[in-house]
Amino acid sequence: MSERTVEHSIDTVENAAGTPDEEQPFRELGLRDEEYLRIRDILGRRPTTAELAMYSVMWSEHCSYKSSKVHLRTFGDLPRSEALLVGMGENAGVVDVGEGYAVTFKVESHNHPSYVEPYQGAATGVGGIVRDILTMGARPVAVMDSLRFGRADAPDTARVLPGVVAGVGGYGNCLGLPNIGGEVLFDDCYAGNPLVNALCVGVMKHSDVRLAKAEGVGNKVVLFGARTGGDGIGGVSVLASETFDEHGPAKRPSVQVGDPFTEKLLIEACLEIFAADLVTGIQDLGGAGLSCATSELAAAGSGGMRIDLETVPLRDSTLTAAEILMSESQERMCAIVEPTKVEEFLAVCARWDVLATVIGEVTDGDRLLIDWHGERIVDVPPRTVAHDGPVYERPYHRPADLDELQADAPPAGSADLRADWLAVVGSPDGCDKSWLTEQYDRYVQGNTVLAQPDDAGVVRIDETSNRGIALALDGNARFARLDPYTGAQLNLAEAYRNVAVSGAVPLAVTNCLNFGSPEEPEVMWQFAEAVRGLADGCRALGLPVTGGNVSLYNQTGDVPINPTPVIGVLGVHADVRTRVRGGWRAAGETVLLLGETRPEFGGSAWAAVAHGHLGGLPPQLDLAAEQALAGLLATLAADGLVTSAHDLSDGGLAQALTESALRYGTGATLRVDGDATAALFAESVARAVVTSSDPAAVRAAAEAAGVPVTELGTTGGDALVVSSAGGGVLVELPLAELRTAWTRTLPDLFGHPEDVVGAVPTGAVPTS
Amino acid sequence: MPRVVVDVVLKPEISDPQGQAVLGALGRLGHRGVTGVRQGKHFVLDVEGTPDEAELREIAENLLANPVIEDVELHLEAVRPPTPSQG
Amino acid sequence: MPRVVVDVVLKPEISDPQGQAVLGALGRLGHRGVTGVRQGKHFVLDVEGTPDEAELREIAENLLANPVIEDVELHLEAVRPPTPSQG
Amino acid sequence: MRIGVVTFPGSLDDVDAARAVRLAGGEVVPLWHADAELPAVDAVVLPGGFSYGDYLRAGAIAARQPLMRAVVDRARAGMPVLGICNGFQVLCEAGLLPGALTRNSHLHFRNRDQALLVERADTAWTSSYAQGQTIVVPVKNGEGRYVAADADLDRIEGEGRVVVRYAGGNPNGSSRDIAGVTSADGRVVGLMPHPEHAVEELTGPSVDGLGFFSSVLEGVLS
Ligand SMILES: Nc1ncnc2c1ncn2[C@@H]1O[C@H](COP(=O)(O)OP(=O)(O)O)[C@@H](O)[C@H]1O
Ligand SMILES: [Mg+2]
User: Fold this and answer.
1) Does residue B12 have a cis peptide bond before it, meaning omega lies within 30 degrees of 0?
2) pTM of whole model > 0.80?
3) Residue A397 falls in the annotated catalytic set
4) Measured CA distances, A136 to A88, A99, D111 (Å)
5) Best of D51, D57, D61 to mutate (most B CBs within 10 Å, chain B)
6) How is chain C split into domains, by residue range?
7) Cα–Cα distance between A757 and A145 in angstroms, integer?
8) Per-residue model confidence (pLDDT) at position B63
9) Nearest 5°: phi and psi at A12?
10) Positions of the region Disordered (chain A) (predicted)?
């Protein structure tokens, strides 16, 4: 490794000043010539090897958001929300959910690492987002995961999916965090570019909010958690900002191995430390490790910081200073602690078997100084590392093929409703997901009110008042491919609807924007449009964007993934006991459809499954209708007027009826008006199906809310029977047949759980 | 029938939480003589006829191990006389 | 520093789904020469000074293995090529 | 009555176990793995989780912690002990219960609502059930496959040591569908399923799990 040979004769600041012409491997580290020159400008000399390492990781796409920043700013322009306590820019946003409680939540991607090493990539993705939440001062209370894989029957999917699922489960289960929902969808465009987006949500009291800030001259910098090893060195700039190619060792991704047990101890130690008020600032070590933590802490504070790098506990004694600064070893945190509290801080860590070391202190002055065995190897203004990274105004333009794609409207009529119905609900996207979700613990902590397969996850946050929160994650990429501006809003609308269906009041938004290479103007356009759409959607719904994450370069060669903006919406339940569940439990209840159906098939599951077609325009967005529906659902829940509710989205009414009937094995006899294909498979927005034993009251409430309502029929029997207005039977599906079609798909592909022999997730640590 | 033993160990630079946990337990149990523990996997393969070394190496390196994080040691059983425990 | 290797394998009468999974995968990949697979654990211990065989056996049999379901094999590093010790 | 709930590093369901004890009307005494002394408690619950990450073997390291020596002594003297999931694994590793728990036959972590057949309604932890009763509680484990040599299984069955058996499907390949076993004196019970997750309508598939905790309360009172 070229850095290492340079490193062996320690490259001090003096040395750097004296050897201006020394060749430096900045290109291998992913820096452009002009960026390297800017660093020399800032420092007034060439950077030392250690400084070069820091700038290169912190100015990488992943850490600096250099391509996305100019667009993400629009989220900041959204009208200030009453609920928002901490906005974008911190590790995660914080919102007020009432009764003095604050909730922090964020979704983050770990896409490339999960392709390289599915189990560890996914596991460390969960570990990373959990530390972001913990850093805010919150107790993590739940996780969710949004996954995308290549075609379900592709050989590589059989390698990636089982490992990713085992990794998400293995890490989250071992931390004692219930998994309350997520998504898994398949498309050729993700072959070679699987997406693993993990969400974590945490709860605290308002007064407990902590920030990543180094304040107070003389305060100590304490590094605690795992030892530092060679994990993921350069991983940030390599894994997250370059597509794969075989050239150059500097581009060979390195893998990090997660240790959920150590993270669990870290969580408990941190919560005890917060409770005893032992820190003035705290930051997790994620991408760019110590480079990121020290420069961000110092930049956020008023003074400077000095670190003795040789005091960092190492797992591998051969690491160079630059490697220690870049290492992405997992399960580490960095805290700023008043001298008088250091002893107590260390005692708490010892009690939890957490290694903790004072590695430096906050100084007056405004420099970040790092010494290595007494020699100065870093002397920089911290802001220039953490925040003054390059900002690109990347060129963008509308994809050349988009007009043609939008003009290519999907077929409008189904030749065989019954066959199409079975195909849609039996497709990898539409089928039963318990093959995955059974690998996740949804019960731990004993506060999970709703989890998969319900539309939203619901967690009780107060056992006395029964206050709770609801969360949903949605990211339909077909819609976004057809129209990223509308697609992003449709995803927002779906997550919003899912939260509302549970009876919760939507409150705030997070997001993870997964796109191809920003260097492709057409991809950059998709990104810009999606961000603009999300911002406009949030403005219309009056919801703040509290944070999120961007993952670019998700493409193979010059073929990018479909734009995949995954949107998370958080809602509040004043009393979780009034939550509405999915699934029909009893016969004799009236089934009602809320909302209006139009013949909209563009980007629909039906068009994809029955016709292998992607084209036309996505369904028409109607945020006002979404708000009316959400308001109605909240009323129905509060007044206990509905016995079940399920939103309509992918797969339309057919999908919703299937899931509602199979949940508890209750059929129904129903009647639909108008065009049958549209009635069953259209994906028109702002719709939900509910059941009630008091349909008149539901009608009245719907009319009051201005939401169209249609009575579909009655629950009961062991089949779904759907007739037309004229009374002729359109489809009759015995539940047994429907269940087989819906449940067999993933087991057939990835192994029947009952088989004694299953897949061996590579790298899996034992779990129980 | 010939037996082949394949030991799969994490690469030295990869952290080994399991080994660390065992080391910690040994310390608490007073076995201070042990100063390092690495935990790996141990496979015993029954092979029909004369094992084809190249094929076995392929199996060991790409199937039994995950080359991204693990190294393998291939032993033809004969090479390693075990000290079976009387337990 | 001396090294000690401990291999832990399931008793023959205890079924080994991991081994069977590997065997199945090998078959699907056309490696028909392998007719049986058992998967166990492989521990490498660094030991200070002269290892006390009795203590090591105690560690191997009562901590590293669960005598109810597992057998252990103890290998003193002596029988294998010496490896430089890690800091 | 005072019921100790042990927290090991990596215990996860200790909060849930404590909640279940409270809902059943007991007083919870939190116990810390590193303490050598066992305070005055009438019974002890070893909760689920991943003590020490389940590295090495599930429950192996926890079973060798200081507090466990005290728990083992008191259990041998008749104190009721309930081990749930990881707690069951600890009890087997500590030698208080026969057999061992190994990697699930399908090699996956499995979380589902599971029907159980109560075969012993006369242990310290199952007296408020009826023999032959079927209950539904969550099961969630990756190393929950109960195994023992056939001869031992025959003995365990012969002595009627099986407390609960999986009904309507075996979630992990356990020998003879065994979900939980008891000590010879019926005071120590271990099971892989999670009764503490079935104590509230709001959060559980049923409230069938409460019986384990009310049993020990009634038992000690009478
Ligand atoms: N798509 C996005 N929408 C809103 N905020 C974002 C988005 N992507 C990143 N951010 C915000 O930018 C900041 C830096 O993101 P990131 O580097 O992922 O934080 P961390 O390193 O703590 O995970 C965070 O506050 C994050 O919420
Ligand atoms: Mg962070």
Assistant:
1) no
2) yes
3) no
4) 12, 19, 30
5) D61
6) 3-77
7) 26
8) 86
9) -85, 170
10) 1-23
Between CA A734 and CA A739 the distance in angstroms is 9
Chains B, C: CB contacts within 8 A come to: 125
Chain C closest-CA separation from residue A756 CA (Å)? 7
User: Can you point out the beta strands (E) in chain B?
Assistant: 3-10, 34-47, 70-76, 83-84
> What are A47's two structure tokens?
């950077």
Whether chain A has a CB inside 8 Å of the CB on C87: the answer is yes
Ligand 1 atom at minimal distance to the Cα of residue A284: 22
- What length does chain A have? 768
Query: Given its phi and psi angles, is residue D11 left (phi above 0), alpha (psi -120 to 50 degrees) or beta?
Result: beta
> Among B21, B15, B26, B19, which residue's Cα sits nearest to residue B41?
B19
The nearest CA of chain D is from the CA of B25 a distance in Å of: 6
List of residues 6+ apart from A59 with CB closer than 8 A:
A31, A35, A66, A389, A390
Pairing of strands A644-647, A101-109: unpaired
CB proximity D206 to A under 8 Å: no
Residue A108 counted as an annotated binding residue: yes
D-chain residues within 8 Å CB-CB of C15?
105, 147
Among A221, A226, A238, A230, residue whose Cα is nearest residue A283: A221
pLDDT in tens, chain D (222 residues): 999 999 999 999 999 999 999 999 999 999 999 898 999 999 999 999 999 998 989 999 999 988 999 999 999 999 999 999 999 999 999 999 999 999 999 889 999 999 999 999 999 999 999 999 999 999 999 999 999 989 999 999 999 999 999 999 999 999 999 999 999 999 999 999 999 999 999 999 999 999 999 999 998 655
Kindly identify which residue of chain D lies nearest to residue A179, measuring between CA atoms.
Answer: D111
Q: Is C37 in Cβ contact with B45 (below 8 Å)? A: yes
Q: Is A132 annotated as a binding residue?
A: yes
Closest CA to A504 of A567, A547, A450, A546: A450
Overall size of chain C counted in residues? 87
Ligand 1 atom nearest to A531, measured from its CA: 1
What is the bridge-based pairing of β-strands D2-7 and D43-46?
parallel
Contact C17 D106 (CB under 8 A): yes
Give the residue, C30 or A736, on which the prediction is more confident: A736
The residue ranges of every structural domain in chain A are 581-749
Task: Sheet containing A179-186: give its strands across.
Answer: A84-86, A93-98, A101-109, A195-205, A139-149, A179-186
Q: Which residue of C lies nearest to A315 if distances are taken between CA atoms?
A: C87
Q: A71, A110, A573, A646: which one is catalytic?
A: A110
Q: Ligand 1: which residue has its CA nearest to atom 25?
A: A89
A723, β-bridge pairs? A671, A729
Ligand found nearest the CA of A284? 2
Q: Which residue has the tokens 């399931």?
A: C10
Nearest Cα neighbor of A604 from A688, A680, A540 is A680
> Which of A:294-323 have CB within 8 Å of C?
317
d(CA A116, CA A12): 36
Ligand nearest to the CA of A88: 1
Q: Please say if A752 is a catalytic residue.
A: no
Containing H/E element for C72? strand C70-76
Mutating to test ligand 1, I would choose from A66, A108, A549 the residue with most ligand atoms within 8 A of its C-beta, which is: A549
DSSP C85: P
A356-363: strand order across its sheet: A281-284, A332-337, A220-225, A356-363, A304-308, A368-372, A375-380
Ligand nearest to C-alpha A282:
2
Q: What top-level class would CATH report for the domain A581-749?
A: alpha beta
* Residue A110 is assigned to a ligand binding site: yes
State the DSSP code for A77: T
Task: Looking at the CA of residue A108, tell me the nearest atom of ligand 1.
Answer: 18
Could you give the CA distance from residue C13 to residue A293 in angstroms, rounded to a whole number? 52
